[in-house]
Amino acid sequence: MNGLLPLLKKELIEQLRTYRLLVVGGIFLFFGILTPLTLKFLPQIMKLSGEQIALDIPPPTAIQSLIEYAGTIGQVGVLVMVLVAMGTVANEIKHGTGLLTLSKPVTRAAFVFAKFLAMCATLLVSLMIASPVTYGYTVGLIGPASTAAFIGQNLLLAVFLLFCLAVTILFSALFKSSLAAGGISIGIIICLALVSTLPVIGGYLPGKLLTWGNNLLNGSGNSYWWALIVTVIIIGICLYLAQYVLKKKEI
């Protein structure tokens, strides 16, 4: 992949200049702080709201807080990854900046992988900022939880979000419209998430990675190694197809 390192350096600088790292990290950090705070102070919030509803809310647990965090990031993170990636190829092709880059001695594969790796860095740094803060707030406000299980949960969450990123990059390469790329990517991710709830076949799909992460925290339930393997394969296929499309497309 000729030109990967210079392109990667360019893309990493672009992540900083366009404030993508700041925005993604800020969103993840916001929900990372909000989740344990909401669970801890929900009874007081209900009282302050003036609602005269008798609710018997059990005390929150650390596991509940961390599962809620992963669920929120698993949903919000999908939207964030799609928004970040949907124009990454389409807009460059549309505005001609991609032609300028690809006219140099760089391969299509390097072009695609540099973008993917730069956005991977943004995602991973954002998780590395938000997750320890969430864990700290959870332990401080609610109670202790398994550090190893939480790390495992975050790794699986990261792989799931990287899958969403790779799917979006593929459709960004396929379509000139970033809105079309984003809309179709979200539709496919939602469909796969729904299929993941089905017996047998669901255990082989990316959505089960989030379930597996929750199982780690609960200390019970199934592991979904095949879902992990299939997800990694899908990521590789999406990136391969994205660069293949660019090779065949007239730019």
A few lines on this structure:
This protein has helices at residues 4-17, 20-48, 62-85, 90-95, 97-102, 108-141, 147-174, 178-195, 208-218, 225-248. With 251 residues, it is an all-alpha fold.
Itemize the secondary structure elements and their pairings.
Blueprint lengths: L3 H14 L2 H29 L13 H24 L4 H6 L1 H6 L5 H34 L5 H28 L3 H18 L12 H11 L6 H24 L3
- How do the helices and strands follow one another from N- to C-terminus? HHHHHHHHHH
Largest sheet: none
Rg calculated over all Cα atoms: 20 Å
**Oligomer description:** single chain
Name the shape in a single word: globular
Low-pLDDT windows of residues? none
Q: What is the SS-derived class? A: mainly alpha
What is the overall pLDDT average? 87
Tally of individual domains = 1
Number of helices: 10
Bin the helical content: over 70%
Report how far apart the termini are.
19 Å
How many strand segments?
0
Approximate strand percentage: under 5%
Written description of the protein model:
The protein has 251 residues and is mainly alpha-helical. The chain has one domain (4-248). The protein is built from ten helices and no strands. It has helices spanning 4-17, 20-48, 62-85, 90-95, 97-102, 108-141, 147-174, 178-195, 208-218, 225-248. α6 (108-141) runs antiparallel to α7 and α7 runs antiparallel to α9 (208-218). The longest helix has 34 residues, at 108-141. The relative contact order is 0.14.
Features:
251 residues; 10 helices; 77% helix; globular
